[in-house]
Design a protein that fits this description.
By secondary structure, the protein is an alpha/beta fold. 39% of the residues lie in helices and 18% in strands. It contains 6 helices and 8 strands, in the order αββαβαβαββαβαβ. It has helices at residues 6-25, 66-82, 95-107, 124-132, 157-171, 188-201, and strands spanning 38-41, 55-60, 85-90, 112-116, 137-140, 151-153, 176-181, 207-213. The chain is elongated.
Length: 224
């Protein structure tokens, strides 16, 4: 990516992130199920200022749940508003799939990559490859163990796990039996929220964890 355009790309991506997060928290938002393995939004032509039109690639850990679908819809809406080409890929909860998507975006000359990683550790390799190729990478929603990200926007999952467990502990009076259903194994949400939950459980010896499991079967698809 050329240095002269780096600041503008950063500002565009920051706006995409902010709208995405706002859209995900809105109860009135709309979402549509992505078709195939990717979706794109193009405004056509150059930007209003006549500058180069940027091409941004997005890969989410999965597009079969409402949260990431809402993020994707908001990103496409904002990209259209800003006159930016955006292509969104479904990582399908598979590390190899998401790494391959990174490799394709690098080879196709995307100006920047936004992603929510399938795995907090394994996807650091893909980030390294992109940065070495001169493509800045922005994290959103879930974390990756890499110091190469240009920026990350998302919640603190350890704090979220502590909040969840404190709420449950209060509701059951500090004692009882619970089952923990985790998200995709290896994602920062699963790893770090589990850490937060167990931080709180240390204070409640009368709460017994009967099982910690990932839900069996595919994530239900969203239809609106």
């Amino acid at each position: 990516m050329r240095q002269t355009g780096s600041l503008k790309v950063w500002l565009i991506l920051a706006l995409c992130f902010m709208l995405a997060l706002t859209g995900c928290s809105s109860q009135g938002g709309s979402a549509s199920e992505p078709s195939g393995n990717s979706g794109s939004s193009e405004a056509g032509g150059d930007t209003a200022s006549g500058d180069k039109k940027f091409k941004i690639g997005v890969t989410h850990y999965g597009l079969k749940n409402e949260f990431t679908v809402l993020i994707s819809d908001a990103q496409k809406e904002k990209a259209k508003e800003l006159g930016v080409d955006i292509e969104i890929f479904d990582g399908n909860y598979d590390v190899n799939t998401q790494i391959s998507q990174f490799e394709n975006m690098i080879a196709q000359g995307f100006d920047a990559i936004i992603f929510s990683p399938v795995d907090v550790d394994a996807m650091s390799v893909a980030v390294e490859q992109a940065v070495q190729a001169g493509v800045p990478v922005f994290g959103v929603n879930t974390r990756v163990n890499s110091d190469k990200l240009t920026s990350y926007i998302g919640s603190n999952d350890v704090t979220a796990g502590e909040f969840e467990m404190n709420f449950i502990a209060e509701k059951i009076g500090g004692k009882g039996n619970i089952v923990i259903l985790e998200g995709p194994i290896g994602s920062s949400a699963q790893v770090q929220r589990r850490e937060g939950i167990h931080n709180v459980l240390k204070k409640y010896p009368d709460i017994k964890v009967l099982a910690e499991k990932q839900p069996i079967g595919p994530v239900p698809k969203v239809s609106h």
